[in-house]
Here is the input.
Amino acid sequence: MAEAARKDGIRRLVLIVDDEHVNRRLLGRIIEEEYDVIYAEDGQEALELIRKREKTLSMVLLDLIMPKMDGYELLALLHDDPNLSRIPVIVLTSERTAEVKSLQLGAADFIPKPYDMPEVILARVRRSIELAEDNSIISATENDTLTGLYTKEFFFQHCRRHDQYYPEAAMDVLVININRFHLINELHGRLFGDTVISCIAGQLNRILDDADGIACRSDADTFFLYISHRDSYEALLNRIVTEITEISGNSRISLRMGVYKNADKKIDIEARFDRATLACNSLRNSYNTSFTLYDDTMHERELYSEKLINDMDAGVEERQFKVYYQPKYNITGSEPVLSSAEALIRWDHPEYGLVGPGSFVPLFEENGLVQKLDHYVWKEAAAQIRRWKDKFGITIPISVNVSRIDIYDPHLEEKLLEIVKEEGLEPHEYLLEITESAYTDNSSQIIETVKKLREDGFRVEMDDFGSGYSSLNMLAALPIDALKLDMMFIRKLTEDEKDMKMVQLMIDIAKFLNIPVIAEGVETKEQYDLLKKLGCDIIQGYYFSKPIPEEEFEKLVEAAINQH
Here is the structure.
């Protein structure tokens, strides 16, 4: 029995409080084989011992009728002290009427007098200590240490219990996230970040004082609320931000909130919060305090996205992905001349038909699938260059996109060289497009990678130039063979003089670096004429042709050959 009580190797400490010496010694003999025992003759002495041993004391056996301070008064003091209330108290009494009052004051159990059943007494002590220690462990994991709010796992349990007792109550599901919280920690320190988190938690608790609901801290910078339905949450969100600003003095902290109103209780609680999270994440690129409501269209988009992700592997294996080619024309001479093409992906999905890249490329970038898709396009483009070379006797270079994830692939150089080698091509016949923003992510590593690729003979175009943050000093050091202007500038070229001057500046920079300029998204003759006048070298866009399949592109090649 003793081994069972101290199976973790720790002997618990028990305090016996009774003004009668015989009773104290009798109880002590019953439990001392399993527990270390200390004694007190009255409530006042007991209180001093409890405060002195509060961290190591596992139980108090307490008589009710004593001089100086009786058991009821001591129970009340322990109950009201958060540091002492964790210690279980078993009341020693011969009066059944004392049980109700003792329970109200926090007693864990009772041992009736006289002490004629030692096994029962020992079992009650052992069980009460085990329950108290289990509750202590649960309490430690039930609440977030910084905020005091529930942890996510216990929060969901309480939500389910709420649904069980109040099945008809209309409830809203809220997800609140702090915009760019990692930057707040980096710029102001973790202590400041903790202050912001605690401030939000405090506001949520005050909100819940006025409303039926519960809250938790889900992740470092995310909070969940399950709250009785209300019409608007804008005031609630602004109230939280106002207090953060007052406490922190920082007006740049902003929040975003996703709300799933009158949540369907037939859906599992985690799925309800997934929907509110989806609404919250839809505001990810907005850095103002704002909220949005979940609706069925979000759910439909989510299902659509999930379907595309799940179908991606089959799409590659079954060659559902089709590479289209958009021609690029050199306009430096008197007449535009077909010079190369860009490979652009389309998905001939068996269920959704022809799906544009805007629907799946960003999705695959977020989920890490874009590398597999890029590799597919690279191989298709290289095979196409080979076919046209064999058919027309000329090389039509094709540019392919190299994503940020590809850049960090340690085997990138090896993969690209293998692809061109398989098709019997030279690297210079293959063009690589890398966005300007990729260069600014980790410039030293990317520059080193691109230098190696150019040494191998590949030609590299900086895509979307003007959308990133390249400094002139950095630009002069970049290993590139062409600048491709961001489409945004081209769209407003003939409408906004400032954009026209920006394009002129970028063309001048390219001339200074002695590299050609490519303009994509050219749709009108007015844009074409102005770009030619400004000194642009190559044009791509609907003015000449939309992206087209292989067989249609070949007609353009044949026309160009016949023209010359």
In short: The longest strand covers residues 337-349. DSSP finds 23 helices and 19 strands in the chain. The longest helix spans residues 118-142. Residues 99 and 455 are 88 Å apart (CA to CA).
